[in-house]
Amino acid sequence: MPLMETRGHQRKRLDDKSPRHQVTSYWERTLWPLQSLYFLLPLLLGYELGAVMFAPEGDERLPQIYAERMLGRFFEWTGVTGYYLPGIATAVILLCWHFARRDPWKPEPRLYLVMLIESAILAAPLFIFSIMMTRPPTEATAMVGAAGWLPMLASGLDGVESWRQGVIFSIGAGIYEELVFRLIVIALVHMLLSDVLALPKSWSAGGAIAISAILFALYHPFDSHYPWQWDSLEWGRFAFYTLAGLYFAAIYVYRGFGIVAATHALYDVMVIATHFRNT
After folding, report:
1. Exposure pattern of 220-253 as b/e (b: 16+ CB <10 Å)?
2. In a domain, 9, yes or no
3. Are 32 and 101 within 8 A, CB to CB?
4. What sequence ranges are listed for the domain CAAX prenyl protease 2/Lysostaphin resistance protein A-like (predicted)?
5. Which residues contact 219 (CB under 8 A, 6 or more apart)?
6. Residue 25 contacts residue 255 (beta carbons within 8 Å)
7. Number of other residues whose CB lies within 10 A of the CB of residue 78
8. According to the model, what pLDDT value does residue 81 have?
9. Nearest alpha-carbon partner for 116 in 274, 263, 251
10. Could you tell me the pTM of the whole model?
């Protein structure tokens, strides 16, 4: 959020009540946090509903995405608990950002189909890149993360019992991993580097993006917790996740939270589809 607000070409703050404020272009409106919330709201609801509908036998719901559990643990630390708090927090953060920017409230449904198409277009290069780096493409490339399922998903998706479960996990990973590593981490690190350490804006922005990408890579499971014990395959996975983190960060900065979350989710859906097509 602070990183995006410091960009020289950043869009003007708009106010519905002022006639001199006019909506300009698709590229500007899709950056607004409220439009991201409108765009992602069906995915948020679909994830929560699907987690219950496609739960393994004997369980109330699918295991939470690990990034979602991280948010849940933070809320537990503050004394607040609840399955749906991460989803509520996502909406509240985007709404607070909207209030700070004073953008228009009006939904623009015509944007959302184009945003979905753009997200699919942006997901395709990353999927192709994953194929180039790994054989088969599902090996070490799925960024879907759930407690207890991460190693299986990262090494062949064995933990996903059906394509429906895979799609639900993909949606959750897209939203919550981008919320944690792009929206929250980039904002906090940028604030630390810029406001606390007083680094130049370009250093703060670059540092925030690089640190978020490295943390995103380390978030994924490896055979060893210690990098000095990694083999070439492990280092290749780390390189892929870091580059993917940089790619997602660039999309976040230039195209906004809604599109980067959907891009991440659609990339994971492509991995899931490839896996179940080949099984």
Report:
1. bbbeeeeeeebeeeeeebbebbbbbbbbbbebbb
2. no
3. yes
4. 163-270
5. 66, 67, 145, 177, 181, 241
6. no
7. 8
8. 78
9. 263
10. 0.83
Q: Is residue 134 within 8 Å of 204, Cβ to Cβ?
A: no
**Matching residue, tokens 């290069």:** 125
Q: What pLDDT was estimated at residue 257?
A: 97
Structural domain harbouring 204 = 24-277
Long-range contact set of residues 157-166: C-beta below 8 Å, sequence gap at least 24:
157/271, 157/272, 157/275, 160/272, 160/275, 161/56, 162/54, 163/272, 163/273, 163/276, 164/50, 164/54, 165/54, 165/62, 166/268, 166/269, 166/272, 166/275, 166/276
Average pLDDT by consecutive 10-residue portion of the chain (279 residues)? 50 43 78 96 94 80 84 86 86 95 92 97 93 59 41 44 88 94 96 93 95 92 76 84 95 97 94 78
For 265, half-sphere exposure in the C-beta direction (CA atoms, 13 angstrom radius) is 26
Shortest CA distance to 259 belongs to which of 250, 269, 271? 250
Please give the tally of structural domains in the chain.
Answer: 1
- Which amino acid does the sequence have at 198? A
Residue 17 forms part of a structural domain: no
Does residue 203 form part of some domain? yes
The answer to whether position 11 is within a domain reads: no
In whole angstroms, what is the distance from residue 167 CA to residue 265 CA? Answer: 8
The Cα–Cα gap between 90 and 96 comes to 10
